[in-house]
Structure formats: C-alpha cells, structure tokens
Fold Peptidase M14 domain-containing protein.
Amino acid sequence: MRHLASPVLHALAIAILMLANQVLAADPLHFIDTSFENASPLDWEVLADGTVRIDLIYDHERDSPNRAAGHWHFRIDAEPGSELTLLLNHFSNVWNGRSALACSDATIGFISPNGSQWQSIETEFIKDAGQLRFTVTVPPSGSLWVARLPPYRISDLNRLLAEIAEHPLVEVTPIGETVQQRPLEIVRIGREDAPNRVFIRARAHPWEPGGNWVVEGMMRHLLKTHDEDSASYLDRYCVYIMPMANKDGVAMGRTRFNVLGKDLNRDWNAPADENLCPENAALELWLTGMLNSGRRPHLALELHNDESGKLHLSRPDDTQLEAYLVRMNRLESLLVEKTWFREGATDPTFRNSGTLGEGWLSRFGIDAVIHELNANWIEGLQSRPSAEHWMIYGQQLCDVLDAYFKATD
Ligand SMILES: [Zn+2]
C-alpha cells in the first residue's frame, strides 16, 4: 500500500505546485524596487482582487507624538502593458501634535517610464480609509517609476554643482555634515560685496523637492552669460543658498525628519543641538560667522511644499514685527506682480513657533519667511506643478528680489 500511495501523492503534490505557480504567474506584478537613491521605504501586498496595497513607512519625531509619511517613490517591475491598481496606505500623520491626514481630494502623483521625465496623474482619495488609489499601465519596458512629486536627488544637486562650481561668480562653501556624514554646503551666487544679501534654504523636509527645482532655476538664471537682466541683478544682490538641508532623508526616501528624528524646520527658537541636529547646527555656525563679519542677510527664504502654497508670516512677540510685516507685504505684492504666485499669505492669526522664519526673525532680527509651494496645483498657471514650472519660478524670483531691493536701496 505504501509503495502505491507514495507515487500518487508525489504526482499530486507536483500538480498542486504547478497550479500554484500558474496562479502566481498570472499576477502581473513581479516586484516593487526601492533599492535606489531617494526611493521610499514601504511594504506591499497583492490583495485578492489584484490591487497592490502599498503601506508607506512613517518617520517619527524625537520626544514627540509627531510622525510623517507622504513621500512615495518606487519602481514597479511588471508585465508590459498590464494595468495595475495601486492603493497607497498610511497617511495618518501627526503634525504639531495633532492628527493630520497627509492626502486629500487634491493630491496628485507622478509616473515616469525612465525615472527622469515625469507626468502627473490624478488619484482617487478614499476619505474614510485615508488612502489614495490610482491605476497605472506598465510600459513596454516592463518598468514604471511612481513618485509623489518629480524627484530631485542628491545626484541631481551634485551634477548641478559640478557644472557651475568653476564659474567666477560661484563659491561653494562646505559648512558641515549631516548625521550620516554627507557634506552640507552653501552656494553663493554673485559678488560678496553686493549691497544686498539673500539667504535661501531648500529641502528641510525630504518629501518636498519643489524648493530644489526653484533654486536650480534661480542659479541657472543668475549665471546666464550675456544676459543684461542677470548682470544687473548681481549688481544689486547676491544669494547664499543651502540647497539641500536634509540630505540623509532625501537619500533614504524619508518624509520629514532627519535620521535622528529632528525636524529641521523646528527648534529655531534656541541654538541647534549639534549631535542630534548637525544640519541646523552647521547652518547656525555659518550664519553666526556672517553676522560677526558684518554680512547679515537682508532677507531669508525657507522653501517648502504643502497642499496650499502660502507665504507663512509667523507673528512672534517682537517689537520689530510691524516693520517686518510691511516689508513682507511688499514681498508678497512683488511675488504676485512678477511671478505665477497667487496663493497669498497666511491670515493674521497665524503663528508657527520654532520655524526658521520665526526663529531667525526673533533671535537674529533677520527678515525671514517660510514660502510654501503648492504640491498639487499652481493657481497662477491653472496647472499642476512640474519641475519646469518650479524652475521658471526660480527664474522669476530673481526679478522679485531685484525689485524688492530697488525699493529699499
Ligand atoms: Zn515642509
């Protein structure tokens, strides 16, 4: 009996295995690749109906209930021509101690056949579950890149810096290192003795690449040779740019905090902790050097992405607040006049303590302001954002700064 049963069972087992393999082979998804620069950590599972559920991984703030997920960037390997429905999960962020869903009806995404040219797509917001759903078609190559926003990686920045570093009007100054020892730099465009100085920081929050595209557009425009406008801008001002504050987070595809759980746009009301937050400590050391050598920035812009795109005018208890607000209102008017910015400033009750904007104003008397860029819609262009639109904004900002300082000279 044993001799008879064994081959039968064996054949049966093989048949079951073959059937199982066929079922698996019928699933068009081969793999989700998150092995590359700026890809987001995630978990995924194919549900019974074939939908691919993608669980984003939160990053957490130290000594705080705050947590954030909202960056996604991955590559799908699947059968060419197949349609895949993706369900993105885990947007239940905690922001400033309050629950805050990191997606909405307005949230868009981006897809690319090659990881460099991106096209926006709509998503379906599933309100009750706090999830996003969208369907993609896999290109003939069998690979499709998917991201929240057109990615800007450290390699993109390095390529730009290599291109411009030798220009006589460019100085790249190393100012320190991130937690994971990536070099941090300030890029000066223009002459050190220019009558006005502007500081701009981008990418304190890794999911927000808009500021990187803006400063690239600005740098390229200011360095255009044989351009009369560019030459006259640099007679009036020079810019000091910290192009990528949270490099570790960008490299690792994180959403908001540095790798030790510090928010680089918080705690500016006190000196930065050089162990937990070397990115801010390095910047503060640089700023102190500027102040001590009589080179106080006349204006500081901190660039971010969110879902409303406003100029954030925080109102600390400060004796100089009124004069500051007059200048910031003028800046806002010039933004509307000379760029596609139409989103306006926050209302008069707005206050967000500890941001670079408020901290630099309170502690150093610098006209500093947070400038958000709407991640889903550009009102002034009636268009979804793109890397090109943000580069153009950087170009337009050159004109804004020129007019801003012309009025105060
Ligand atoms: Zn931000």
Summary: Residues 205, 208, 304 surround zinc ion (CB under 6 Å). The mean pLDDT is 94. The chain has two domains: 28-147, 154-408.
